[in-house]
Each structure stands twice: as C-alpha cells, then as structure tokens.
Amino acid sequence: MAAQELCLSLYPYNGDGQEDALTFEVGERIVLLEKPDDGGWWKGHKPGGLVKGWFPASYVKLETASPRVGRATINLPSDWAMYQSPEGKPYYVNTSTRETRWEIPVGTQTVPLTPPPLSPSPSQTKQTNGDAVSKVQDKNGSAPTISVTPPASPTEVIEVPPEETNQPPQTNTVKPRQFVINNITFPHPDSLKDQSLLKPDECSYCDYFWADKNEQSGFNVLTDKHHLGKVLSKEMAEFFKERAALEENYAKSLHKLSQSQLGSREEGTLSDAWKKIKVSLAEEAEYHQQFATKIREEVEKPLLAYKDALKKEIKKMEQQTMDQRKQLASKMQVIEKAKFKLEEKRKDLEFKQTSPQASRADEEKAKRKTVQAGEELNKAVDTYNAVQDQWFQDMVTLTLELEKMELNRINMVKTQYDKYHQLRNNRDTSSQKILQNLHSIIEKVDMSIDKDNFVRSHATGKLRPVHLAKVR
User: Fold this and answer.
1) What is d(CA 47, CA 353) in angstroms, rounded to the nearest whole number?
2) Strand ranges (E), 295-339
3) Using N-to-C axis directions, what is the helix angle for 218-258 and 268-295, rounded to 10°?
4) Rounded to two decimals, what is the model's pTM?
5) Are the CB atoms for 276 and 331 separated by under 8 Å?
6) Rounded CA gap, 228 and 242, in Å?
7) CB of 304 closer than 8 Å to CB of 240
8) What is the per-residue pLDDT across 438-451, written as a single tens digit (0 to 9) for each?
9) Which pick of 264, 301, 390, 470 has the fewest CB atoms within 10 Å?
10) How far is CA 339 from CA 38, 347, 415, in A?
11) What is the CA radius of gyration of the chain?
C-alpha cells in the first residue's frame, strides 16, 4: 500500500463497543495503515493521532476531488470549494471573496444516501473462530442478518433547495457537548444524563450547587445562606436582648411597687393577705431579674459568639474560591488566545493551499505552524483542566464544610430556643409557687375574725341608747 494513503469518513462510527476500533465523526481524514484483501475492514489512525484501530471500509472513501459529508453527496455552489484541516476536519473557502467558514455554505444541495450494512470486525472474527457459535434462526429457518444504521452525524446538513420552498434554506445546528459558564466547563445535559451524585442518599451541598444561577455562582449562593445565618444570629441576639430588658424593667417595676405604702392601713386577716401580696411582688421581681440575667448569659451571648466565629470562617472560604476563580479566568483567556491563533494559522494554511504563488515548502511550513498552534491550544486546555480539577476538589471540601457549618448553626439555634423555653418554664414554675403561697394566705381571710378583732380593738362601749323619760 502506498505511504500516507488517506480516506475521508462518510458516516460517524462509534466503535460499537469494540476495544480495537477507531472512532470518528463525519468528514474526518484518516491515514490508512492496513487494507486486507477481504475489503470489509481497514485499519488506520487520524493525522497526528496516536490511536490506531479498525473501522468499516464502507464508512469511508479514498480521497478524491468529490467531497462528501454525512449521508449525502454535496453539490457546493460554483464559487465554493471544500478543503481539509490537518486534523481532518472539512472547511469551505469562497474562491472569489476568500471567505472561509466551517459551516456548509447556503445553497448547498444534498441527496440522502443509505448507509451500508457492517460485516463482522476482525476482533469479532477472532472470537468466532475460537468458539463454537450456534446460529440463531428466524421463523423461516435462516440466520438473521446483521444490519447497523449509523446515527445521524452531528455535522449532517439537511438542506431544502430554494425552488421547493418559499422559506430560506435552514441548516441544522450542532448541539454542543459542553458549555462554559463563568469559566467553568459543564457537560451538556443531552450528552451526559447519568452523571452520578457524590452523595446520592441525601440532598448534599456538594451535589447541587455547581452551576451559576441568576449571575451568581453556586458557592456564592451557599455563602449568602451563611451570611444570612450570621445576620439572623445577630437579629436573634438583639431579640433576646430586648426580651431580657423587658424582664429587667418589669422586675424593677415590681420591686418598686412592692415597697408602696398603699393599702398599708388594712387590718386583720385582710392585712396579712395584703402584706403577702406585696411580698410576692418582691419575690416575683427577683425571679424576673434572674430570668433576664440568664437570657443574656445563656441565650444572647452564645448567639453573638457564633455569629463572630461564622464571619471569620466564611471570609476565609470566600477568599480561597475567589483566588481559584481568578486562576480559571486567566487560564480561559489563554485558551481563547490559543484558539484565535489556531484559527489564524488555519486561514493561512487555507490560503497557502489555494494560492498558485505558494510553494510546497510554504504549504508544509503553514501546516507545521497550524499543528504547533493546535498543540499549544491542547496544552492550554490541559493546564485549564488541571486548575479546574483542583477547583473541583476544593469546592467539594468547601461545600461539605459549609454544609456542616449550616447544620451546626441550625442545631445551635435550636439549642438556644430550648434554653429559652427551659428558662421561661423555670421562671413560670417559680411564679406559680409564689401564687400558690399567696393563694393559701388569701384563703385565710375571715370576715368574722376581722369583724371581731375590729370590735375588740375599736369598741366604744356596750351601753345602748334608751328612750328619754317623760316629765311626770
């Protein structure tokens, strides 16, 4: 076989699960290595590629002047021509305006072709020769035929000639397999539907906050949640501070009222009950003062302390992820510059390949520069991927730490709620005892005793008035 014999793929081939298969898309150039006599399968590799493998010969054609794309023979407009990049990707040049593009020019007409069936691959043939194979027969007793229909090519063009419709021709666009948001690369949902969760048994932070939402990163959504937690802790501390102040003011008012001389002239059992009421006010004032002090010490202060600790942790995390985002942005800029450089080198190569004045040496030099630009782009992508991998690992750690902090915050706040309830219950229990003691004194009020005591203490005499005697 002649050296560097090339062929062009007519259909995409995904390897059908064969380990020694060479996969490709439509319109890719392939360097042939082996062409067995049976002609069913050929072996080759992509230009500049290291992977070698077998592929169906019926899915490619030896390079000729008549290009094909997808499942259709292409009839380009008269002023357009198709060429191959060093990577084997087809592109199109307008010979009049020198315009270049990756997309097939408008006005291109296509005629669908039926893809051929596949014969067993060399690896399948080896397996068949080593094992006794029983043929599965259909209802008529004949062995079933193997028919493989290639899937639609991502670059397949379906054009309607202008004379058959009143609408301008439309070209199906390729759905991207990846997309970049704020310098983070994500798989397209259609190309990776079963991405496994890191913690599938729970709704964990580390699984649901990777993408950006409303121009805000998932990490910022989490830190905003913790900023809110910090603010809420401060607001709750202010609330309990005011609650304690109410108790203190109430305690002062109760103590002042207990010292009042109002009603001090009461006598008897009523006097005892009245004195007990004022004493109970003093006792209740003491309990309210203790309640206020415990609210400040056991509820308000822990909330403020947690707020300050949370502030330091979040600030440290935000700085770390901010630095990594800056690194990703920097690496993405390098990639964009490398892409632009590669595009310029490709255009120069196109010009050298089509220009009559360009020599073979000029074309080879342009090819080398194009390959070098491609290698630089790949190197930039590798560097970016390494930075993104580190960012991913750190983000998993940070999100799990934020999750732990939020769970701790919830538990801490719940503890303060429980503490307040306990203190309030203790205060109410103490108040209830005071009321019970007061009630026992009130029950001893006896109007008969008070009446008798009053009579004994304030009696003025037992002699009652009599009628005035008449004059005789």
Assistant:
1) 17
2) none
3) 160
4) 0.52
5) no
6) 21
7) no
8) 888 889 889 998 88
9) 470
10) 42, 12, 57
11) 46
